[in-house]
Structures are given as structure tokens and as C-alpha cells.
């Protein structure tokens, strides 16, 4: 009878999903992240209107670098190699709180959009679309945050 093989050691950084260890994951994430940040910096340097092009490139590349590195890491990491990672995150209590909050927020959005559309149609009120969407998006995010906290508190 063969004995089950011991699972690979877990770490905070994890292993690459495509094979290879932690070093492969870190190197690939860094290379892809640098490419993404450089592309965004170059795009902004090309499209920007004020200041020196190299300065616009450097600022955008540096500011976007952490997120640009974490994005490929999140897509390429093998979850089973992470310390403390939940096996099935979709079955966690946080996922239930998220689902409850998202469901309630969606109902609020449908009601608000319906009432708003009726009011704007009947009153012929004209508003700046960009500002309206910023305010509405902020309210939706606040609504979701409140509903998430209420769901969390209800389960406590």
C-alpha cells in the first residue's frame, strides 16, 4: 500500500499555478507588473498635456506598480499553497454577508433608478451626468457597506 504524499509546504506568497515555486511566481508577477505599469506610464506620457513626458511616465509607473504586480500574482498563485487560505472561499461566512449585501443593494438600485427616471422624465430636470453618476455610485457603495455591516452584525 502506498502512503499519501505529503503536501507541499505553504507560504505567505504561495507557488505558481503554472508550475514552479515561489521564485517563479514572484519573477513572473514582477515582469508582468512592470510591463503593465510601464505601458500605463507611456500611455499617460503620450496623452498628457502638461509637464514633461518623462515625469508623467515616472509618476504613473511608480504609482500603479504595486497594483500592477499584485494583479498577475492574484491570477497566477495556487491558492492551495497559501498559508491560511480558505479551501472554498465561496462557502465562507463572508461570502454569505457579501451575497446578502449585494442582493439588498441591487434592489435599492432598481428602486432608485426607477424613481429617479420617473422624476427626471416628469420634471424635465437637467443635471450634470458625470456629477449624478459620481453621487449615485457613492451612495450605492455606502449602501453596500452598511448592508454588509448589518449582515455581519446579524450573524454575530
UniProtKB/TrEMBL annotation:
Membrane in keyword set: yes
Transmembrane annotation, as ranges: 21-47, 53-76, 131-150
Keywords from the UniProt entry: Membrane, Transmembrane, Transmembrane helix
Record protein name field: Uncharacterized protein
Amino acid at each position: 500500500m502506498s502512503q499519501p504524499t505529503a503536501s507541499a509546504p505553504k507560504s505567505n506568497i504561495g507557488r505558481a499555478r503554472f508550475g514552479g515555486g515561489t521564485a517563479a511566481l514572484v519573477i513572473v508577477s514582477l515582469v508582468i507588473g512592470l510591463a503593465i505599469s510601464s505601458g500605463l506610464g507611456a500611455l499617460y506620457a503620450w496623452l498628457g498635456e502638461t509637464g514633461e513626458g518623462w515625469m508623467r511616465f515616472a509618476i504613473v509607473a511608480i504609482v500603479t506598480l504595486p497594483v500592477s504586480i499584485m494583479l498577475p500574482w492574484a491570477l497566477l498563485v495556487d491558492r492551495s499553497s497559501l498559508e491560511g487560505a480558505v479551501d472554498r472561499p465561496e462557502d465562507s461566512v463572508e461570502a454569505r454577508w457579501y451575497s446578502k449585501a449585494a442582493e439588498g443593494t441591487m434592489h435599492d438600485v432598481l428602486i432608485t433608478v426607477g424613481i429617479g427616471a420617473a422624476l427626471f422624465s416628469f420634471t424635465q430636470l437637467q443635471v450634470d451626468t458625470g456629477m449624478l453618476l459620481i453621487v449615485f455610485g457613492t451612495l450605492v457603495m455606502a449602501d453596500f457597506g452598511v448592508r454588509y455591516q448589518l449582515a455581519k452584525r446579524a450573524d454575530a
